[in-house]
Amino acid sequence: MKAKIKPGKLLINNEWCEAQSGKRFEVTNPATEEVLATVAEGDAPDVDRAVTAARRAFEEGPWKKMSARDRGRILYRFAGLLDKNRDELAELETLNNGKPIRETTQADLPLTIDAFEYYAGLADKIHGDTLPVNGNYFNYTLREPAGVVGQIIPWNFPLLMAAWKLGPALATGCTVVLKPAEQTPLTALRLGELLLEAGLPPGVVNIVPGFGPTAGAAVARHMDIDKVAFTGSTDVGKLIMKMAAESNLKRVSLELGGKAPNIIFADCDIDAAVNGAMQGIFFNQGEVCCAGSRLFIEEKVKEEFLSKLKTRAEQKLVGDPLDPRTEMGAQASAEQFHKILGYIKKGKDEGARLLTGGEAAAERGYFIKPTVFDGVTDEMAIAREEIFGPVVSALSFKNIDELTRRANNTIYGLSAGVWTRDIGKAHRMAKEIKAGTIWINCYNCFDAASPFGGFKQSGFGRELGKYALELYTQVKSVWVAMD
């Protein structure tokens, strides 16, 4: 085993320490239900200590005085350390989260490294403008770091979501208090060790594991945090926004839930679309905010498409996440496992027809068989609510106007897929669907340069690319009289 698992502590001001309360909590392996480690349980007093360290580093420490290019060099060194330790990190992520090792090695780690390399290169390219204003004035803008940032990380992509948030925050010169999900804190703590090895100054990144209602709420409410970034459920996102408003009106960015339409037109490459539907819903055990969980299929090809999808779903290898052959691992927690099974029961109770799956895939561990429902209507819970699991609902459509209305009939707007050989139709759908990312004849494509975020109750703000710099900077306008 490459992963080094040990009792976890808090990282505050570059020092590893216990929580002030002395409390610890257990972290489990969802594939075996066994305890992996205990981790210090941070709470409001620990968040206070972390914020104090982050504020000092931002206002007084070497991070504030360091050139943007030198900040970029630290991020490059850190990316190199991630690359050097990628096998260990992939294994640690798989053990703590339950996702297959083939996904952590082929997706999570490469994308994580790419994000830090991208923002390392962008660090010294953040600048203002000179503006041609009326009158005898010289006007220019400065783009300055937002300040102390609270970042609350989800459990479905613990390493990658930390990278999406830490990369731009550090590139812009912010300092960070990072709260990993209580289910999956182990890779975040390992990131802390590597950040120290890369030479990050004290207080720049502080890591406080703990629970949402305590540590997470303390971050959202803290009067000396300037901005909070959250990825997770829409319900919790609303709570964070409320707490941020009621405290110091801190800036907020939210990447929340989704119920993406994945649209299959009759003129598409059916086999490619089946592959895309499989990727769209079963990647990461369906624990993906942009999962293609509403499968809209044009009536004339629905029978053929679902026959092929059912066959492929039943062939998908579910099992030991550490086995390189495994294609789908365990759900991340017992809570999520039972929630998904509850939605499957609700689907059957509401009259949807179960084509395949719909039950646990093992006697031990939180495994669920790839599940496909047919005969789903737009009003059913499985077509409206985010299940966050390997469950897809097949719906049929006759024409494009009906389809557009139904695809947009959701509180969410994070992503969508379109499968067609008609380029005009593809661009029309890309324009009319209200979502932050549209994939045409592909699904789940990501790059550090391309923005990601949602419409409607999928949140606001864009992560990745140069767009993420907006989340972590303030713009200042400076006027100079030339008389």
Can you give a write-up of this model?
- The protein folds into two domains: 10-256 and 457-479, Aldehyde Dehydrogenase, Chain A, domain 1, CATH 3.40.605; 261-447, Aldehyde Dehydrogenase, Chain A, domain 2, CATH 3.40.309.10.
- 39% of the residues lie in helices and 20% in strands.
- The protein is built from 15 helices and 20 strands.
- The protein has helices spanning 44-59, 62-65, 68-84, 86-97, 101-122, 158-172, 186-197, 212-221, 234-246, 270-282, 299-315, 334-349, 381-384, 400-407, 423-432; strands at 10-12, 15-17, 24-29, 34-40, 130-131, 137-145, 148-152, 175-179, 205-207, 227-231, 251-255, 261-264, 294-298, 353-356, 371-374, 391-397, 415-419, 437-440, 459-460, 473-481.
- Strands 14-15-16-13-12-17-18 form a seven-stranded mixed sheet, sandwiched between helices. A six-stranded mixed sheet has the order 9-8-7-10-11-19, with helices on both faces.
- The protein is globular and about 70 Å long.
- The termini are far apart.
- The model has no long low-confidence stretch (mean pLDDT 97).
